[in-house]
Model the fold of this input.
Amino acid sequence: MGLNRNIYPQSGYVYYTLSGAKLVATSWDELAKKLQEFKKLQGQNISEEEAFALIEEQVCQREPLMCRERRPVDLSNLHKSTPGSHQSHVTRALAWLRKKALENQQRVTSKVDQDQAESRAEICFKCPLMSFYVNTCSTCSASLHQLREAVLFGTGKPYKNLGFCKLTGEDLGVAVWLDEEPLKNLKAPSNCWRCK
Done:
């Protein structure tokens, strides 16, 4: 298993559900049980192994050093805006949000209903091209929050447990709500709703 369970995670034994719930435990085993119980309340029965797989996927995104043997990460350029670096993706997402906030002020954006947004969010949450915002400076975090609210003002709430798309540069917590033409000629997974 890629996740080293012998290391205490910096963020604690925590799992964030797509709906925004925060599951907190004192061990990996307890966290897996809590996730199983949560899924059961949602009408979905998952095994302990499936619960660990979901936890591992999220923790490895949030704290990649805990999963080095499976996901080696070069952190040397983390704070440099070089093409493809985490910081450059954050910059792209902020630029995209600013553009959408302006369009929203001009009333040129349209939104989808909550059911469709939820369906899209489920796809993005499991997509390998979705990356969480990690080690983001306080200024960028504040800008993300303000811009997300500005784009969706009066419509819906951004999915806080979605990060950004490494392919499109869009903030997925907001993008899932927008009714826009699909992007073309991008190498996206076959189930991607954003690219055709």
